[in-house]
Amino acid sequence: DIQMTQSPSSLSASVGDRVTITCRTSQTISSFLNWYQLKPGKAPKLLLYAASTLQSGVPSRFSGSGSGTDFTLTITSLQPEDFATYYCQQTYTTPPITFGQGTRLDIK
Amino acid sequence: QVQLQESGPGLVKPSETLSLTCTLSGGFISSYYWNWIRQTAGQGLEWIGRIYSTGSTNYNPSLKSRVSMSVDTSNNQFSLRLTSVTAADTAVYYCARAVPRSTVFGVVHAFDTWGQGTKVTVSS
Description:
- The structure holds two protein chains of two kinds.
- Chain A is an all-beta fold.
- Chain A contains no helices and eleven strands.
- In chain A, a hairpin with a 2-residue loop joins strand 7 and strand 8 (70-75).
- Chain B contains no helices and eleven strands.
- At the A-B interface, strand 4, strand 5 and strand 10 of A face strand 5, strand 9 and strand 10 of B.
């Protein structure tokens, strides 16, 4: 299985801040990397696919980069609705599809 | 607008079988991969498996011996069965649609539509 390591596991930030979350894979996955946002009681939301392509309807303050084994999710100018948990996911080698362990983003 | 909704018992006894159904509205179950994912307390997301509209399945090797999935195209539903459950199977269970996205390096499958999740507790 491809192992996914996200960092940090949690972080605190303020509205208006810029934050970066990193995802590293145990083997190369080209750009077969997606990012999701989870909030309690709500349907998870696809933010970016193929490492850097913004899903329709997602604000442009979200961006992604990387290929191979190292990927980043960046949120510029944090908004109150962005405080959530973020997961990376690889779909390069299946089964199984695997996720990172998540990054919880809290309000400072 | 495509929507997914999970349904099933919120409480299952140890050693029994967990059964969940996901109902699709605003679209058709034909084509696409339909997935089950779970989130255990304090843990991340775990992919359980997927089923194509033809009935073809792929399961997570870690659960393969206990998992089965089925699809009912006439009712726009797909289902999950997990046998011999233990407390470790207590989780929020999600269903999700995977759509193919063409890119310069290949076809990437991304989960573009999810249900809100249903909490299942395994306890006597």
